[in-house]
Amino acid sequence: MHRGFLWLLFLCNLLGTVYGYIWYGGQLESTLDNYPVWLIVFVPDSPTASLFFTISLLFLMYPASSSWLKKTGHVIQALAFVTSLKYGIWAVVMIVAGWSLGVDMIWSDFMLIASHLAMAVEVLLYARFFGFRLGSLVFAGVWTLLNDTLDYTKGIYPGLPDAVDVYINRVRNFTVVLSLASILTGFIALRQTKRL
Questions:
Q1: Which of 4, 83, 115, 175 can bridge 49 by disulfide, Cβ–Cβ 3.0-4.6 Å?
Q2: Which domain of life is it from (predicted)?
């Protein structure tokens, strides 16, 4: 919780978030060209999770003074927890699954594995400092499951190598189970911090 370290973490996550949105650039353009505009919010999964965590760090450094801002911060922290844990693990599993199916290893895979594992680890480490409660966690869970539903009914899930994409039904099932596991982990975090 040292302020200097929180700023370093904030800057690292902010840069990663910007890079993530750039990474999704082609899919964002394709979505805008072929789908209703409102779906764009649900396309860049990992960068949005990283954005939630980045904003959560600001709430840690600058605690909200008003009740409304405090509740907003709690919702963002709950979203950060569930989505960062989920997509941090999801991306690593998809990359390794691709390798196991013969997809070539490239340098960016290792960068993505490191950055996504960091997303999952950092949110687990900082959960005890977050102030979200049950209502915020329920909201985050509904948001995450809605995202899954839209990803796999509208076809806006993150781009996958062809070798993995042929197993899209299994990917969908794994994604939903991972969402539920991330929400459950949020409940466990609430119990451990005595906020439930």
A1: 83
A2: Bacteria
What are the CA-CA distances from residue 35 to residues 31, 38, 42, 57, 146 (Å)? Answer: 5, 8, 12, 33, 17
Q: Which residues are within 8 A (CB) of 132 and not within 5 positions of it... i.e. 6 or more apart?
A: 74, 75, 77, 78, 81, 140, 190, 195
Series of mean pLDDT values for 10-residue runs along the chain (196 residues): 96 97 95 95 96 97 94 97 98 97 94 96 96 96 98 95 95 98 96 81
- Whole-number Å distance between alpha carbons of 196 and 187: 8
Alpha carbon distances (Å) from 9 to 34, 61, 84, 126, 191: 36, 11, 14, 11, 26
In the numeric block, the tokens 């998809």 are attached to 94
pLDDT of residue 195: 74
Rounded CA separation 24/29 (Å)? 9
Residue 161 φ/ψ, nearest 5 degrees: -60, 150
Interacting residues of 191 by C-beta distance below 8 A, sequence separation 6+: none
The b-or-e profile of 60-69 (16+ CB within 10 A means b, else e) is: beeeeeeeee
**Residue 78: partners with Cβ closer than 8 Å, 6 or more residues away:** 130, 132, 136, 137, 139, 140, 186
